[in-house]
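Lecture notes, unit on protein representations.

Consider one protein chain, 226 amino acids long.
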Amino acid sequence: MLFTDRLYEKAKPIWNKNHSHPFVQGIGHGTLDIAKFKFFMRQDYLYLIDYARLFALGSLKGSDLKTMSTFAKLLNSTLNVEMNLHRQYAKRLGISEEELETTKAAPITLAYSGYMLNVSQRGSLVDLVAAVLPCTWSYYEIGTELSKIPGALENETYGEWVQMYASEEFGELADWLITLMNQLAEGKTEAELTKLEEIFLNTSRYEYMFWDMSFNLEMWPTDDEQ
């Protein structure tokens, strides 16, 4: 059994909750309150900035030119393609670039990205991949599942989001990270694999918390700002 098969089985209960979360289902059925999605888009913009930093770290920690080059391409794509598309999409929703740039990070956003950066900076490349993989892999699964809902791909507000994460290009990124995870896990002791499993499960849990945070518009409990 591939190591990622083991990870998938362990994370499946968490991922099932992600898939069935009212925020995710609301995107697929076109029923999500637009205010909740705008909140998500602004927090996700901040998250993407740190996600790009993780790809930079991946290039730094890569032990061969192919891995270094691929992470460098992912960094460039995140900063100059995905984030630009994010800004354009946000603009159509009535969110200006200034609003994106001045958004205050919610507690879960800080905790999630901070955890990934901490694990990745302190650990090796395999720790980094274990941290970033749930986001890419689960988003592709969610996009694929939502695309099967009648009308989801054509929805005026959320169709483009579903198309993006159900796309072949995004699936190829998930597949590359899955393959890399299996390659890096080869020869690891059970103790090392258990550590990687816990990292993977933790960021899977943070994925659920990010959906839940967005659905409930959660900022700091002592702060009324959204």
